[in-house]
Design a protein that fits this description.
heterotrimer, A mainly alpha (305), B alpha/beta (395), C mainly alpha (267), B: 395 residues, alpha/beta, five-stranded mixed beta sheet, 15 helices, 17% strand, globular, disordered N terminus, C: 267 residues, mainly alpha
Amino acid sequence: MSVSAEGSGGLAKRASPLGNIPRLLWRHPWLRGLATLSPPLAWFVVIYLASLLVMLLTAFWTVNPFTNLMQHSFSTANFSTLLASPYPGIILRTVLMAAAVTVTDTIVALPFAYFMARVAGSRTQRILFTAIMLPLWASYLARVYAWIVILQKGGVLSWSAQKLGLGAINIGYTNTAMWIVFSYIWLPFMIVPVYSAIERIPQSLLEASGDLGARNWRTVRSVLLPLALPGVVAGSIFTFSLTLGDFITPLLIGGTNSQLIGNVIYSNIGTADNLPFAATLALVPIAIMIIYLTGARFLGAFEAL
Amino acid sequence: MRYGIKPLTALVALLALAVTVALSVGSSAAASGLGAPPQANASVLKSVGKGEGKLNLIAWEGYAQPEWVKPFEKLTGCQVNAKYAGSSSDMVSLMSGGGGHQYDLVSASGDADLRLIYGGDVRPVNISLFPTWKQFRPFLQSPGFNTIGGKHYGVSYEFGPNVLLYSKKTFASAPTSWSVLYSKKYAGKITVPDNPIQIADAALYLEKAQPKLGITDPYELTQPQFNAAVALLKSEHPLVKKYWALASQEISLFQSGTTVVGAAWPYQTNTLVGDKVSVADTIPREGATGWADTWMLATNAPHPNCAYKWIQWVTTPKVQAQEADYFGETPANTQACGYMDKISKGSCAAYHANAPQAYFKTIKFWKTPLAQCGNGKSDCVPFQQWVSAWTQITS
Amino acid sequence: MIEGRLTRVLLRVWVALVLLFLFVPIALIVLYAFNKSNVQGWPPSGLSTRWITVAWHDSQVRSALLLSVKAGLLATAVALLLGSAAAFGVHRFRFFGREAVSLLLVLPLALPGIITGIALNSAFQWVGINLSLLTIVIGHATFCIVVVYNNVIARLRRVSESMYEAAADLGASGFFTFRTITVPMLSTALLSGALLAFALSFDEVIVTTFTAGAQNTLPLWIFGAIRLGQQLPEVNVVVVFVLLLTVIPVAVAARLAGSGGVARALT
């Protein structure tokens, strides 16, 4: 039953300062839709999507080797280069690193998020939340740089290990170092969605599971984890995509076998000034993320809001 | 996933439109030979007027230190804003579009100069507005990498060698050959720059180590010579701890003792020695590659008067001496020698500021590798191949 | 599920370890802000407070900080407007391609920043726009919109439709309903979205590398200083200063919006 905005049952008409427009918008919902959606969609299509398409186009162009001016003629040379060594290796390394970081962060985040959501009192909850958001305000660059001091030869880690009698640990400039730093930097982005998902689980579900005879571990396995999964998947979108495109951590922390897609793209913009090839390389993370997002939606990450 | 029909159609239409537009834009002017630079006939400043209050530079790390920037700002009112670049290619990239109406000056080395000039990104300067130019060494007044057809596309600044940096704890005396960088003895303790131009350093070493290859110019390499250099670098890869991209990285590597030998600029040596780290540098017997920098004026420089004032300032003997001492390079201005010894005794001789042309000739300065070999042939390997080979070497 | 005593203890230990992990680098940043030497070796060769004076008088730091704040505020403002508009549109109206639009609105955060960066950079070059504060804001706003959108749509989904119908029954016009019911309800969602959007914009370096011209935001200045390696303690001083400035707003926002509110901005 549609209710007209003029009111009924003897109540005074409320005049709207916008005149007849509200009535028009009420009668024709699609107009309202258009009005609210046009500005953001215009931004996204005109600025974001169009620029992505421009970049996609340049993947089919090449660059004059001497003057660095782009040749606007169609060519698939970049794609054949992409399929040749060493790029497949670099892509594989990046994906594996992203996966390792995602798994690590999930394992670290789950107990933390559970504690925050279910065990901690509300004051502790707020303190913990502030605590995990705070590092995001201490420059990403400064934090990564601090890790160099921790992980390098004779650095904090090695020094502490020696004091504990474990002998020197020298993992500076290795893939292990990159894995640690990536896991560190993206951790808050994983904790927050997982916390959000766990917080939403009704306590009654967990109690019911116990009532039905399940021991704690069974409850965790069959009730808690599946319900927390959308949160994990949402967090993994961040850890995965942020690792796929990052060039600063490999630059500062990585060693000689640590080239990732991100810094190869970056060096093609800078050192090589080869935007077309950089665009070709950029298509790889885009393709990977679209596949990942499809899977994530399937696992309910977007409906977990 | 269900996609709506309407957005999909819109997407396809947009794509079609973009493709049509792109294809209708003609092919850009590719410089097949080396004709006249695009900005050859651009107007030059007749006289230096009042400063615009701001100056945007693209510079090497260490080229815009407060010691000489602050007095400049006070003198001219031009506030200096420096963006640092780690390689010539970075500089070329930042300068594309004539500096994008953002940047005024770039301290480009020889390998970027020609690319900038022929890319139309820099414009000629009026050399008569720089009285200090007359004090320059003759071979830096109008060198081939910044003066074309009699027009000066900038003013020479300083030059220096890429040195072999070593830890005095590991090496009792200075190494005499670049071979230490390729030696298994120091596996995992070596560092070299992450820059495709490093292939020239390998070629320079091979010039003496494998004379049969017949390398005469490390930047003009035929395919077999190039392949040999690349093979050497690939064999070096497992021995390298890190390819440094930022000057501070190499400083950090030597400071922590992670690396004991590497290719460096004297800038790193000076910083480390200043921090009491036990290192020194040397030029081995095979010689060294190096750079000769030019301050070049962007085609679309928004603050040309400040730009001219900067060049006038940094080519004065005192500032030339300050820079030379700080970075560890040789000034273009011959009058700088006295000032260098005042800052740090013996530095004039240490950085060859009083040396004749002979020293300059021992350094193989960076230049853009082209297909044209300079001896009439065109079978040398161009830079783009250097870049793709370098990605393979470092992965 | 009742956690046993042991589980609780283990959870507490885990939380403590994670907090230690998160804050050791921060502690190091604070420590090295007082490093005498400008090369970061371990242990620090000596302590000194001179870098605080250096940072205080550094005009480059000041202009970088100012630019970051300006860009952050502008991007957040754009994000608040367009993000909530998008959330309304997607939530209230059923139309063909609704799924596609939801996907589109997630892309800026789901796709790596370097891609957004080069895409925008090449688009700006193609169209002929010079890189400046405007282009920086455009770059930042693009992902800030997503953050606000997520937060607002999550809140909208938790509100029952009957509220609007009741308001209409009582004679309220659309605008009045919007003003007195919708906006107050969304206020905390908007606040937490805005806070997170500002935080992301303030610390953003990857997209900004490609969308900034000769000017420096704070992260760009920091990157330049890291390249140079001559002013690292100064960088640490600046970072500590920013941290101290933001502890209070972050704590306040967490209190106002509730941790859940800020959490939803990210999902």
